[in-house]
Amino acid sequence: MIHITFSVFQNHNITGKIVIFVEKWEGYGTTVRYRAASRNEALRGAAGVLLKSVTPFSISSPHTGSGGRGAVIPSACLTIEEAEMLQRMYKRGKKLEIRMQIKSREVGKCTSRNTIFDIKGSTYPDEIVLLSGHMDSWDVGQGAMDDGGGMAVAWNALNIIKEMAKKDPRFAPKRYVSAPVLKTKCLRTLRVVFWTAEEQGMLGSQAYFKETEKDSLKKFFFVSESDQGAFKPKNDKSAFHFMGTRAQMKVLDEIVQIINDHNIPLSLVQSNDQGDVQFWSDKGVPSVNYVSDQGKDYYFYFHHTNGDYMTVFKDGDLDYVTAIFAALAHVLGNIDHW
Amino acid sequence: MIHITFSVFQNHNITGKIVIFVEKWEGYGTTVRYRAASRNEALRGAAGVLLKSVTPFSISSPHTGSGGRGAVIPSACLTIEEAEMLQRMYKRGKKLEIRMQIKSREVGKCTSRNTIFDIKGSTYPDEIVLLSGHMDSWDVGQGAMDDGGGMAVAWNALNIIKEMAKKDPRFAPKRYVSAPVLKTKCLRTLRVVFWTAEEQGMLGSQAYFKETEKDSLKKFFFVSESDQGAFKPKNDKSAFHFMGTRAQMKVLDEIVQIINDHNIPLSLVQSNDQGDVQFWSDKGVPSVNYVSDQGKDYYFYFHHTNGDYMTVFKDGDLDYVTAIFAALAHVLGNIDHW
Predict the structure, then answer these.
(1) From the CA of A23, how many Å to the nearest CA of chain B?
(2) Cβ contact (<8 Å) for B81 and A302?
(3) Tell me: the pLDDT tens digits for B214-263?
(4) Which pLDDT does position B35 carry in this prediction?
């Protein structure tokens, strides 16, 4: 039984059958819903679920991902090639017999720990400018893109700020600064967090948020994340996805202009998807989520595959995104107020 | 031991070692030489050979291909990701220990047969306009692109000519035709050949050439091939690669213009690479080899991989290339002379 849309699906008796989803790619946010459907709908009597990998492009590339959680029937991803072949056979009226042999088990819970780096603020040490990425990945590939790159650029942004301030006292952007700035410090604390257990549903950031929830608005001046590939921006479709007030957006727009002045294309757009830092965004803390133009389709060529290797990053990718986050953190660490 | 260029390679003692080639992609024709090097150079005492897959792009995609023939040591392809990881480890001074476990054997020779379709010519049945593709493929994928598509468009071009002539008597292009044209026929014989054993080194076309060699110039009015992906042409970098005289090129240029007039971009360029029909080209029979703009880099994303599935062909690919070959065959089947 092969299904293209949920509405078609409702009218079929799937008891004892293997349900195969051969969904169209309509962008990750839309298409990934079919993974959840594997769980929700197939439990209505299906024997198993097969899903075309959630990707716009394939070289016989299976993509894994969450979706089967809580299911009591086997569920797996097919490559685009395999799924479309089954669809062609089905359309020709062939009887499809598939045997699924899947070995998997839940290994139980264990403790994982977020990793936190700080450069203590000189004047407002209790106000935090937060950069972040997540340190867990799927079992396929190296997790270089999802999300080794996010961690690398966040950590390196702090490192660069520290190193540049040592070498060049003029590094503090005077037009934003009214208080004296120590050579190696910003006014505010710059914090990098490597989240754990993002792939299981942002468990690391959620736990950290719960710890800090009481005074989160007071404590966090700004939060940010990079988890859609630390690819250098190639055009003005690369953007900070922003949540916050109009006044805060105006300040961020000035920072984007500084970055643009250095010939780095970047836009600022409003968005409700802030990834791991969404917990704070929802409480009113201003935030950005970095999404390069390649973070839309191209990122999903490699997402949750054996192709998520260091090889995805080309010359300059990590350096450019480091520069963007360094500029962002340094300015926000030193401005008087939003 | 990791090698980038042949010249570096010459100065190393490789006895008892596994040689890993991490070559740069410089286009297929150039880069594929490293596969032959696996055989030729590694026999100088090496224990085995690993080669970065000959491709410009990878999603953890191994590519197979000839190269190890005649070698007495194991030889295999790595994905780009694996090869570049080993290179990074090597550059960091890591000691690399690799165990190769490869099962392969030569199963001996057997008979294979070219498949030939004819539409007999009405006036010059002994003059042949030949279209071709090859029907064998590697053991990976379906061989849809390499070269199922080439066969499909060649066969379908003949089919379309036959069907259109039945329906539309005006189909014969009068300005080229001096003799009366029967409704379902061209003046010359149109022949399609599906070659066998191209992947083993063009054995099928070579055998056929040897059979016909004696009067090949007299018998073959024109020969052609499509073995670089039957992708529809998207821009004027898509071309017939041509071998022949200036006068013949002028005729082909007129055909290309007819195709262009129907909003299909196509160019005509000189080239010495005619694939399976090279045997005839070298004897002076005019020929073209169809190479779409996607036949250069993009084709090699899937070439000799598990991604060589029907999925590579998008809407219109096979139809457009069929149209190109049908126009080509029909005009050449009916012109008075070169």
Answers:
(1) 14
(2) no
(3) 888 889 999 999 999 999 999 999 999 999 999 999 999 999 999 999 99
(4) 87
Residues of A in contact with B311 (CB under 8 A): 58, 80-81, 84-85
**Which tokens sit at A296?**
């839309």
Among chain A residues, the shortest Cα distance to B88 is held by A310
Q: Report the gap between the CA of B310 and the closest CA in chain A (Å).
A: 8
Distance between CA atoms of residues A101 and A76, nearest Å: 10
At the topology level of CATH, where does A115-333 sit?
Answer: Aminopeptidase (3.40.630)
Give the model's pLDDT for residue B13.
83
Average pLDDT, chain B: 90
Q: Which CATH architecture has domain B6-92?
A: 3-Layer(bba) Sandwich (3.50)
Task: State whether residue A34 is helix, strand or coil.
Answer: helix
- For residue A153, what are its two tokens? 């650029």
Alpha-carbon distance of B76 to A24, in angstroms, equals: 36
CA angle (A160 as vertex; A155, A166 as ends), nearest 5: 135
Q: How far apart are CA B141 and CA B306, in angstroms?
A: 4
Q: pTM of the prediction? A: 0.91
Q: Which chain B residues are within 8 Å of A79, Cβ to Cβ?
A: 306
CB B75 within 8 A of CB B59: no
Helix (H, G, I), strand (E, B) or coil at B116: strand
Locate the domains of chain A by residue range: 6-92, 115-333
Backbone phi, then psi, for A31, in 5-degree steps? -70, -30
- Residue at token pair 């910003």: A186
User: With a cut of 70, which residues of chain A have pLDDT below it?
Assistant: 1-10, 68-69, 168-184
Q: Are A130 and A226 in contact, with CB atoms under 8 Å apart?
A: no
Report residue B61 as tokens: 């995609």
Asked whether this chain's domains A6-92 and A115-333 adopt the same fold, the reply is no
Option in A81, A88, A302 nearest B59 (CB): A302
Most confidently modeled range among A158-172, B98-112, B288-302: B288-302
The complex scores an ipTM of 0.90
CA A76-A79-A84 angle, to 5 degrees, is: 110
CA-closest candidate to residue A22, choices A64, A100, A78: A78
Between CA B78 and CA B3 the distance in angstroms is 14
Look at residue A35 in the predicted model and tell me its pLDDT: 87
Q: In what order do the strands lie in the sheet with A2-3?
A: A2-3, A18-21, A48-52, A75-78
